[in-house]
Structure formats: structure tokens, C-alpha cells
Design the sequence.
């Protein structure tokens, strides 16, 4: 049979999940709602951001949550020219690993600049919050170059 | 679980306990070769069965393989539009998304000459009169509404012919490997 | 350890397949059963790998069992993983001493769905998945890290693209527009529908079924954390550990079939395993050119076995990976000798 003649029909599956958070992720999300970032201390004194209930390397339970800074440094990045349908962002942006001041692990989020030429590993960025926050990773609208945010 | 110490700035606030994480997946489903052949003929008001290359059992609707033996079924045969009820269920509870008048009858329909049945609706029959072995025929949508869809047959209705004996009704395709005998 | 060998394999890959999963798998499963002369009733255990999200159907593997013929009832299992992990489960079953033969298969048909959405759903559901980064972007984050630290070079990536066949030469590579900065289209996988089936047998049986069984002399799989920030992007500890446990370096490797769907993964893994960066022989159907989610890993194992059957190699390595940033890694060492 000629594949051009293939029959097809659309199927859309939607999973309207609401996930329970537990005490650690819940505290992080509460922090986002209040526009602060929390990490969790590991046994070696380093701070894990975003926090998990356990050390991802040693699997030891972690309990000591601490606030970290809202500015940091891009450790690596890529450029998203065409954001996908479900992306929180409508326009081209960078995705980057961002190491916040006071944290020892970088985490993934967007850097909102116009074009890839404005991106550089090591650049300083700061958080841009959404006006309305609810306790969700998307409460962070993205990061912007540090000077821009203070201007 | 160990006690979690959170900074004083959020300690006395109501804690977030859940997050929304909806996901949406879009697919363009393709039915495969056998189902495609079946659907094309179904749009011509023909019902195709697949013939097992192992023992000639007729499987309706065709799904590409004889599932008992994992053998490819690429020979098709046209089926009559009459059969019998192998088993049935009367539903008295509404199901969201299905606008059917209650109660309704779902039945395993065994076409004449088919070795396995398929699920479909039975109507024009009061639930208390529905029986295993009862003979039924297809009631199609009007010709101008027929397409490549399982919705072509609105339902099955009694023909009024004598029933198939109870012991002969239902699955006849369940052979033990190799001997061709029914163990149903 | 009980000695177990791969004695037959069959596979198929196509960009966009008309066949459904059953129609895809019947000829492959039939072929390996015919080649070994085994009837399904003579196969001790059947294990498969596939993804429901890819198929868009819950418990989709149950339908595909139609391709096996599970009558009378068979001993069967399934992993929501690449088939290489189904092979691992099967190998464990051999070690338990309860089977002498097994059928392992896996398949994936990315063509009907949005593969990038499916891949996003494997990410951390609280912190990462809601941002919907696609697989290319995640690989690109690692690529930039490695390039800027000068742990790999663009030349390495270009070499790999040429070797994989996604471009003819370096010139063509450098001319390509950037897809996911710093990666070019030639660095990223082209996806294919496909499947693979194989028969395994224990010592004593394997020699009856195959002239030159490909003996599994070592197999192991390991995992790294899903917490991106806790990963060192310069290294893949799970791959190194699995390689050590599988005894990869106990003797020379004649051929390495590695499951790397991005040039950056290919180069990094070769460095991590001390494999030649530009091997004389390249994989047929390199995963960058034809990546079949859920089957590519098992397909690498099939290719590594084929090299032994065809006497092109005597000791081969097959690798399978799963998850973002090569999170999970399986190493399987095959040999023409029982060792």
C-alpha cells in the first residue's frame, strides 16, 4: 500500500495532573510564592538548588533549608528560537543553567534576552518574578542580565 | 520522616502542598495495514475478517495478526452482516461522554462464520429479552453518513430467527496450539 | 555466572511506518524463531521494552503481545525502557537458572506523536518538565559546557557527524545553520520508527541454535541523578561504572556499538570509555541518523552480536542509554569465546 494513502486520525491525550509536593518541594514552592529562593544544605555544607528531600549523590535525607540569592551566574546556555506549544515562553529566549549566589548547584531556567549574541557563559543575571505568584516554577518569569533588572 | 527546617521568613505561612503540572500530547494515529484495509471496505458497507494462516480461523475486526500464534494475517474475507450474541451486559449507569439512553445493551457480537466476537450495541430489544445465542443483524447509518469509522453501524437488532443453542454461542476461536480443537 | 548468548536477531527501521506495532513485530519475531527453529512454546521467557507515552495508549505493550502468540499462556514481562533493559532482566532470569531460552524485543514508533513532548515528560515534574525544554536543548547545554571548557572541540563534533553520516564532510557541517546553539542539525538525531527482536540461549542450548553464539561476558547498568545541577556535565559516572562492572576493559574491544543520539554524547562517551574517537568502523544506522526510542539500545546489542556471527569481530561492546544527559547507561560485552 502506498504510504501516501495512509489513514490517520488525531488523538489528543491530556493529563491534568496536580502533584503533591511533600515538605521540601512544598517549602521551595512556598518560597517562590513569596518571591524568595530556597535551597537545602547537604552534609558537606554545600547548598542544593532546587532542593530535594535527599542528597542526589549520597541519598542521605536533607532537612536544613536556607534562602539563597536572586542573582547569579550563567554556567551554560542554549538558544530556543521557536518555543514549543506548551512552553511558558512565547518568544525566542535562552535556556540556561544558572548558579545563584549562595547556591552550589545550577538550575535550569530561561534568560530573557533578545538574541543569542546577548548571551555569554559567566554573565550575571537576576530573577524577574511574575506579578502574580502561586507557588510554581513558572512564578519565575525568567532571568535577565543583572544591570537591566536594576535599571 | 525527618523534620524539615525552613527559614523563619516562610515558617508561619501556609505551605504550598501541590502544584499544577498539566501535560498535553498530540498524536496523529495511524491504524496499521490491516485496520486500514478493514476501514476502507467498512466505508463501502462491507465487513472484512482476517483469515488465520495457521488454522483458517476468521478474526473480526482484523488487527494484523492471529494473536494466538503471532502469525501475520494478510488474507481477508467478506463477512455477512448477521450473527449472534455471545455475551452481553445491560448498563443502567450513565457514563460521562456517552449520550446513550439508559438502560442500554452492550454485547459481544459473533458474525456468522467468525471465530471471535467484537463489542457493539444491541437495540430494538428490551433488556429482559436479550439472550446469549440470540440472532442479530446490523443496523447501518444512512448511506450518505457512512465513512471510515466504527460508528457506521448504529447498533444490532434481533432478527427473530431461532437462537443459536447456548452451548454453541460465543468464542469458537480458542484452539489449543496444534490440535485445532476448541477448548472453549 | 551462567553463560548466556545471543543466537539470533532481526530488526527494521524506517522513517515513517504504515504498519502498526503488531504488524511491525510479527515478521521480526517470526524470523528469529524460524532462524533458531524454536516454537514459542519452547521459549522459556519473553521480555519486551516500549513506551506507552510514545504509543499514546495505556498498557500498549499488551496489544503487541499479539505479535508473539501468547497461547498457551507464556512467561512474559515488560519494561517501560529501551529493550536493552528487557535484555538485562532476561539475563537475570537466566542467572536464576529458571530458563534456557528467551525472546527479547522492543520497538518504538515516534512518527504518530510529538516526540519532543514525550521526551519532556521524563524530566523532573516539579522543576524542569513545566519549562518544556526539548531534548536538543538539554544536549546543547552539555555541548556548550564541554566546548567552552575545551574538553571537546567542534572538530570532534564535525568528525562524529561525518562518521554518523549526517553530513558528507566538515565543510557541509560548518555550513549548517545552528539548530540548538551550539548544536547543528547534523549533531542531533533524526528519529525513525522501528523494532528489534532477538533470541538468547544458555550454554548447552546456544551452541545447538547458532554456529557462533555471541556470548554475554559482562553486562551492567547504572544511573546518575536526575537533578541536573548535581550532575557534573563533564563526565558520565554511570557509564564509567557500568563499563567497569561489565569488564569492558578486561581485553581489547574490536567494535563498539554505542547508543549516542547526539554527536556530543558520542564524543563524550568515547572519551569516558577510552574508546577511539574516530574508529575505523562506524555503526551502520548510527543513532544520530536513525534514533528509534525504546529500540536503539537493543539494536546496538543486535549489531554487536551480528559482528561476532559474521566474524568481523571477536569481542564487542554494546551500549544503551536512556534519560536526559545520558542519565542511565547499560554496557553489554559480547564475545565469540565463552571466556
Sequence:
Amino acid at each position: 500500500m502506498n504510504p501516501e494513502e495512509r489513514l490517520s486520525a488525531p488523538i489528543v491525550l491530556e493529563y491534568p495532573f496536580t502533584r503533591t509536593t511533600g515538605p521540601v518541594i512544598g517549602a521551595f514552592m512556598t518560597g517562590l510564592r513569596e518571591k524568595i529562593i530556597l535551597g537545602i544544605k547537604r552534609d558537606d555544607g554545600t547548598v542544593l538548588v532546587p532542593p530535594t528531600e535527599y542528597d542526589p549523590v549520597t541519598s542521605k535525607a536533607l532537612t536544613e533549608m536556607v534562602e539563597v540569592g536572586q542573582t547569579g551566574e550563567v554556567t551554560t546556555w542554549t538558544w530556543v528560537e521557536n518555543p514549543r506549544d506548551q512552553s511558558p515562553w512565547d518568544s525566542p529566549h535562552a535556556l540556561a543553567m544558572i548558579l545563584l549566589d549562595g547556591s552550589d548547584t545550577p538550575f535550569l531556567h530561561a534568560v530573557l534576552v533578545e538574541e543569542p549574541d546577548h548571551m555569554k557563559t559567566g554573565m550575571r543575571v537576576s530573577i524577574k518574578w511574575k506579578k502574580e505568584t502561586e507557588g510554581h516554577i513558572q512564578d519565575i518569569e525568567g532571568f535577565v542580565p543583572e544591570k537591566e533588572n536594576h535599571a | 520522616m525527618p523534620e524539615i527546617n525552613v527559614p523563619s521568613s516562610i515558617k508561619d505561612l501556609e505551605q504550598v502542598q501541590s502544584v499544577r503540572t498539566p501535560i498535553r500530547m498530540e498524536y496523529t494515529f495511524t491504524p496499521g495495514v490491516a485496520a486500514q484495509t478493514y476501514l476502507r471496505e467498512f466505508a463501502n458497507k462491507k465487513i472484512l475478517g482476517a483469515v488465520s494462516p495457521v488454522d483458517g480461523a476468521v478474526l473480526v475486526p482484523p488487527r494484523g495478526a492471529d494473536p494466538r500464534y503471532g502469525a501475520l494475517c494478510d488474507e481477508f474475507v467478506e463477512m455477512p452482516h448477521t450473527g449472534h450474541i455471545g455475551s452481553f451486559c445491560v448498563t443502567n449507569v450513565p457514563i460521562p461522554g456517552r449520550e446513550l439512553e439508559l438502560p442500554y445493551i452492550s454485547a459481544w457480537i459473533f458474525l456468522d462464520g467468525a471465530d471471535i466476537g467484537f463489542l457493539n450495541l444491541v437495540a430494538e430489544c428490551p433488556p429482559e429479552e436479550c439472550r446469549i445465542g440470540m440472532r442479530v443483524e446490523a443496523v447501518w447509518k444512512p448511506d450518505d453518513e457512512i465513512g471510515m469509522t466504527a460508528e457506521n453501524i448504529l447498533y444490532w437488532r434481533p432478527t427473530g430467527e431461532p437462537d443459536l443453542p447456548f452451548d454453541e454461542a460465543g468464542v469458537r476461536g480458542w484452539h489449543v496450539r496444534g490440535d485445532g480443537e476448541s477448548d472453549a | 555466572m551462567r553463560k548466556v548468548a545471543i543466537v539470533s536477531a532481526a530488526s527494521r527501521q524506517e522513517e515513517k511506518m504504515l504498519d502498526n506495532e503488531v504488524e511491525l513485530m510479527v515478521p521480526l519475531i517470526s524470523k528469529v524463531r524460524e532462524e533458531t527453529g524454536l516454537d514459542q512454546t519452547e521459549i522459556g521467557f519473553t521480555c519486551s521494552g516500549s513506551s506507552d507515552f510514545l504509543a499514546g495508549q495505556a498498557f500498549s505493550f499488551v496489544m503487541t503481545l499479539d505479535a508473539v502468540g501468547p497461547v498457551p499462556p507464556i512467561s512474559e514481562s515488560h519494561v517501560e525502557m529501551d529493550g536493552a533493559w528487557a535484555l538485562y532482566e532476561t539475563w537475570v532470569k537466566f542467572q536464576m537458572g529458571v530458563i534456557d531460552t528467551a525472546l527479547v524485543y522492543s520497538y518504538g514508533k515516534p512518527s504518530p506523536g510529538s516526540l519532543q513532548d514525550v521526551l519532556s515528560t521524563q524530566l523532573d515534574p516539579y522543576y524542569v518538565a513545566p519549562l518544556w525544554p526539548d531534548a536538543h536543548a538539554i544536549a546543547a547545554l552539555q555541548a556548550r559546557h564541554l566546548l567552552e571548557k575545551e574538553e571537546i572541540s567542534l572538530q570532534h563534533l564535525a568528525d562524529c557527524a561525518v562518521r554518523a553520516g549526517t553530513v558528507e564532510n566538515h565543510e557541509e557541517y560548518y555550513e549548517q545553520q545552528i539548530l540548538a546553539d551550539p548544536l547543528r542539525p547534523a549533531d542531533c538525531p533524526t528519529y525513525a520508527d522501528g523494532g528489534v527482536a532477538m533470541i538468547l540461549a544458555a550454554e548447552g542450548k546456544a551452541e545447538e541454535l547458532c554456529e557462533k553464539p555471541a556470548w554475554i561476558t559482562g553486562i551492567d547498568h547504572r544511573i546518575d541523578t536526575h537533578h541536573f545541577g548535581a550532575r557534573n556535565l563533564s563526565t558520565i559516572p554511570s557509564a564509567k561504572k557500568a563499563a567497569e562492572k561489565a569488564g569492558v576493559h578486561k581485553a581489547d574491544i574490536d567494535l563498539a556499538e554505542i547508543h549516542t543520539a547526539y554527536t556530543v554524547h558520542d564524543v563524550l562517551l568515547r572519551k569516558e570509555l577510552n574508546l577511539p574517537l574516530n574508529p575505523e568502523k562506524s555503526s551502520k544506522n548510527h543513532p544520530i541518523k536513525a534514533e528509534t526510542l525504546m529500540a536503539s539500545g537493543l539494536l546496538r546489542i543486535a549489531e554487536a552480536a551480528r559482528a561476532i556471527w559474521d566474524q568481523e569481530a571477536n569481542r564487542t561492546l554494546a551500549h544503551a542509554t536512556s534519560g536526559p544527559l545520558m542519565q542511565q547507561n547499560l554496557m553489554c560485552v559480547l564475545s565469540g569465546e565463552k571466556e
Remarks:
- Chain B has two domains: 29-79, 80-166.
